[in-house]
């Protein structure tokens, strides 16, 4: 039960840490009570959405680091951010690879009818980045309530249609169920032929991002051959099928290389001695097992994943009880207006660290010397407003593992 490194949290930062460490020959245990926000929100890989148009990502990040010295990117540094992104991309060879827009941001349509700037997109979304007015058909499905084709089409200045779904007996259907149906040849054929009937000269067809979990490129290719037009996916509301694809790819790759995964397990308590973590107890009622390691990485996310919790007085980190930087009183967590142009202070709450991502207190004194912090649980970022969440998770997961391997 002894490991070189135990990683707590199975979101993108934990997965990146595990990939980085196992490539260095380490014996790894990855523990997660869930699959993190990757399977909820991550349709694409946002690195820095506030990047000015036509500016290269490297130039934008370099300036960002200068302007935000406490930001997680500043602790990682430009060179390691780029190394981390390259490491992520290497996990997705063709045909389901991730693409960049000449080192800048793509602008992609979303199911909310907006345009979203993002750095990396899967091949299934590339055709949606250069649409011409009236040249695309947006397709939705009658029994799938999380995508409104006519609304999206109106924003994109093209046509939208809503088609009935075969084989669903007029019941509402979920994103996961629909993506599985897309992998059935008979279902794809029925959908493809119906879309072909609807075309009025359009050369591209946009569908909600549901083209299967296992082989979306083949689903895309089959539909294109039947329809006679290029098909692209449009990101939609949670859950994220593209995010599930990323998680499944990491999971399979890590297991093949000997990483032990405990999915669906939570940490019940930790054993500390001085400034070192000795072991952690993992609860799966009625059984509780202990696991020990030389080093630990905490990558449990913020509030959604339970990495940070709150009571009536303060925000706290529940596993190691680490110091959390936060507004002085609960009244200061939010601004007077919920829909404020400025972000709410609570969104910058998080664990503070030294330059190597080890936790420190407000005086800068080291709290635990064999624990490193990665991902959105880190303080001093506004990943939603910055559109930087996946970039922060990839970069800090990579760096936390690199730093831990030095210890």
Descriptive account of the structure:
This protein is α/β, with parallel strands linked by helices and 407 residues long. It has two domains: 2-95 and 244-406, FAD/NAD(P)-binding domain, CATH 3.50.50; 111-235, Rossmann fold, CATH 3.40.50. 31% of the residues lie in helices and 22% in strands. The protein contains twelve helices and 19 strands. It has helices spanning 12-23, 38-41, 57-67, 72-76, 78-90, 149-156, 175-182, 185-198, 216-227, 241-256, 383-386, 389-406, and strands at 2-8, 28-32, 98-99, 106-109, 115-118, 121-122, 136-141, 159-163, 204-208, 230-234, 260-263, 266-273, 276-284, 287-298, 309-310, 315-316, 324-325, 350-351, 371-373. The strands form six sheets. Strands 1, 2, 11, 12, 13, 14 and 19 form a seven-stranded mixed β-sheet that branches. A four-stranded parallel β-sheet has the order 8-7-9-10, with helices on both faces. A two-stranded antiparallel ribbon has the order 3-6. Helix 5 (78-90) crosses helix 12 and helix 8 (185-198) packs across helix 9. The longest helix is centred in the last third of the chain and has 18 residues, at 389-406. It is globular, with a radius of gyration of 22 Å. The mean pLDDT is 93.
């Amino acid at each position: 039960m002894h490991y070189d490194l135990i990683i707590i949290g199975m979101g993108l930062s934990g997965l990146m840490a595990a990939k980085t460490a196992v490539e260095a020959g380490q014996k790894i245990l990855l523990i997660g009570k869930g699959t993190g926000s990757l399977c909820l929100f991550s349709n694409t890989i946002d690195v820095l959405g506030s990047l000015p148009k036509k500016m290269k990502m490297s130039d934008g990040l370099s300036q960002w680091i200068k302007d935000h010295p406490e930001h997680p990117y500043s602790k990682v540094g430009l060179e390691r951010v780029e190394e981390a992104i390259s490491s992520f991309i290497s996990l997705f060879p063709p045909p389901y690879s991730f693409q960049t827009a000449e080192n800048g941001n793509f602008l992609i349509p979303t199911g909310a009818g907006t345009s979203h700037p993002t750095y990396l997109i899967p091949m299934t979304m590339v055709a949606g980045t250069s649409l011409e007015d009236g040249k695309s058909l947006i397709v939705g499905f009658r029994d799938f309530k999380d995508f409104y084709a006519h609304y999206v089409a109106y924003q994109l200045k093209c046509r939208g249609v809503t088609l009935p779904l075969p084989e669903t007996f007029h019941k509402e259907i979920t994103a996961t169920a629909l993506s599985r149906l897309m992998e059935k040849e008979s279902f794809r054929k029925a959908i493809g032929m119906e879309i072909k009937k609807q075309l009025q000269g359009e050369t591209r067809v946009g569908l909600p991002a549901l083209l299967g979990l296992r082989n979306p490129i083949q689903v895309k290719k089959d539909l294109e051959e039947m329809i006679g037009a290029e098909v692209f996916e449009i990101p939609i509301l949670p859950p994220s099928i593209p995010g599930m694809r990323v998680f499944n790819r990491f999971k399979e790759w890590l297991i093949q290389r000997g990483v032990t995964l405990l999915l669906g397990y939570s940490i019940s308590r930790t054993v500390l001695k001085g400034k070192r973590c000795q072991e952690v107890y993992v609860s799966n009622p009625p059984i509780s097992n202990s696991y020990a390691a030389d080093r630990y990485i905490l990558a449990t996310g913020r509030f959604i994943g339970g990495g940070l919790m709150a009571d009536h007085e303060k925000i706290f980190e529940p596993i190691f009880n680490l110091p959390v930087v936060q507004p002085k009183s609960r009244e200061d967590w939010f601004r007077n207006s919920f829909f404020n142009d400025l972000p709410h202070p609570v969104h910058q709450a998080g664990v503070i660290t030294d330059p190597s991502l080890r936790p420190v207190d407000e005086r800068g004194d080291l709290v635990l010397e064999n624990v490193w912090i990665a991902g959105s649980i880190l303080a001093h970022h506004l990943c939603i407003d910055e559109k930087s969440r996946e970039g922060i998770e990839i970069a800090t997961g990579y760096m936390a593992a690199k730093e831990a391997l030095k210890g």
